[in-house]
Design a protein that fits this description.
single chain; mainly alpha; Rossmann fold; Glutamyl-tRNA Synthetase, domain 3; Glutamyl-tRNA Synthetase, domain 2; three-stranded parallel sheet
Length: 443
């Protein structure tokens, strides 16, 4: 098996593109040592293809840990070969030059019927068109869609090169796949309409047809094509939102493909072992960021405290987070959730939540804080168990609900109503810092 991932470097790697890369990678790695994944950069759009965009694609693949065996190969580097094939097709009578314009094609169809494919006459100059036979059909055999016959009588002679001899997409793709020995073309469903044109090029060259697998497009939760309005649209946006690469790989794998036993949480090794193109589903899959968040939370809670600390320190650019991480791990679903939750433990209480102070640090709340301060000042030993007992003792002595004591303490320590557990925070802050923050709130 030889597969290829062939993105166009016209922007960041879209989530759908990442899934295409992943499915190619899974198919090759499932096949084993004899399989090859080729990375080809389809940079024929000279205006929009930039080195910066190429680096964004490579960066996304590195983050997802999707490696490749050959490449990156740049399509523009193959242009001499493309021009050679164009001249060969012209010489063999499989192609011809034509100055026909869109208006010419429109007039042809007005004369011969709207569903009749355009046929031109060879000229001395102009763009290069591939001859489509008048009889028969080109049959696309696809793992997902089955067989589809494209009747030649309805197909226009497609333009495969500009008048200056520079190749167009369908010619370049067909030649590159042929030269690279690609056996399986795994790509998005939006390329399906190009397939018969590419097959006609291969047929004219006497080349075999690869196996096709066109992946259903990704939709948002509303059933419409996935776009920025649904939230994160690129791999980098997912990374910046605090998702773990292993969770993203797990989630994307299940968008359009199902594990045999309906398992949801699958390691990379388990995905490789189970993945086959034959189980790719036909219907569009729905990318739901809330489901990804849920899955990411499972992965976060499965990490050791040390590993999560390392990732959070890299994500936030801060150090010395381990104690705060240990008491926050059960409450966060993404790396980005950590700092809003636990940041005040490290940097001190935030002062921008007037509503929290007004609700919980009024007369009753301050009285509860005074009682808490009194018991903590002399508490021995100053550790989690005794802190828990001491604060519950305040609740009991005041004959009130726990939140009437715990929420004022939470707001005094962090400035917010949401934080890691109160007892755990006091234990992490220590007696001196806890009393300092309580005194500041009481003042």
């Amino acid at each position: 098996m030889r597969v290829r991932f062939a993105p166009s470097p016209t922007g960041a790697l879209h989530i759908g593109g990442a899934r295409t890369a992943l499915y190619n990678w899974l198919a090759a790695r499932h096949e084993g040592a004899g399989a090859t994944l080729v990375l080809r950069i389809e940079d024929t759009d000279r205006e929009r293809s930039t080195q910066e965009n190429v680096e964004q694609i490579l960066d996304a693949l590195r983050w997802l840990d999707i490696d490749y065996d050959e490449g990156p190969i740049f399509q523009t580097a193959n242009e001499p070969r493309h021009r050679e094939v164009i001249e060969q097709l012209l010489a063999d009578g499989h192609a011809y030059r034509s100055t026909a314009t869109a208006e010419t094609v429109k007039a042809y169809k007005a004369q011969h019927g709207a569903d009749r494919g355009f046929r031109g006459e060879p000229e001395a100059e102009g763009a290069v068109r591939l001859r489509v036979p008048d009889e028969g059909a080109t049959v696309v055999r696809d793992i997902v869609r089955g067989e589809t016959a494209f009747q030649h009588v309805h197909m226009d002679d497609p333009v495969i090169a500009r008048a200056d001899g520079s190749p167009l997409y369908n010619l370049a793709v067909a030649v590159d796949d042929l030269d690279a020995g690609i056996t399986h073309v795994v790509r998005g469903d939006d390329h399906y309409s190009n397939t018969p044109k590419q097959l006609l090029v291969l047929e004219a060259l006497g080349a075999p047809q690869p196996v096709y697998c066109h992946l259903p497009l990704l939709h948002g939760p509303d059933g419409k094509k996935l776009s920025k309005r649904h939230g994160a649209a690129s791999v980098q946006e997912l990374r910046d939102a605090g998702y773990l690469p292993e969770a993203v790989v797990n989630y994307l794998s299940l968008l359009g493909w199902g594990a045999a036993d309906d398992e949801t949480i699958l390691s990379r090794d388990e995905l490789v072992a189970q993945f086959t193109l034959e189980r790719v589903q036909k219907n569009p899959a729905r990318f739901d960021e809330q489901k990804l968040r849920w899955m990411n939370g499972i992965y976060i809670r499965a990490l050791s405290v040390d590993e999560l600390t390392a990732r959070l320190e890299a994500f936030t650019g801060r150090t010395g987070l381990r104690d705060a991480v240990a008491i926050s791990q059960e409450k966060i679903a993404t790396l980005a959730d950590f700092w809003p939750l636990a940041g005040p433990l490290i940097d001190g209480p935030v002062g921008d939540d007037a509503k929290a102070r007004e609700q919980w640090l009024g007369e009753e709340g301050r009285a509860a804080l005074g009682d808490v301060r009194a018991v903590l000042a002399s508490l021995e030993p100053f550790e989690l168990e005794s802190i828990d007992a001491a604060l519950r003792g305040v609740v009991s002595a005041r004959d009130t609900k726990p939140k009437q004591v715990f929420q004022p303490v939470r707001v005094a320590l962090t400035g917010r109503t949401i934080s890691p557990g109160v007892f755990e925070m006091i234990s992490v802050l220590g007696r001196e810092e806890t009393l300092r923050r309580l005194d500041a709130a009481l003042a």
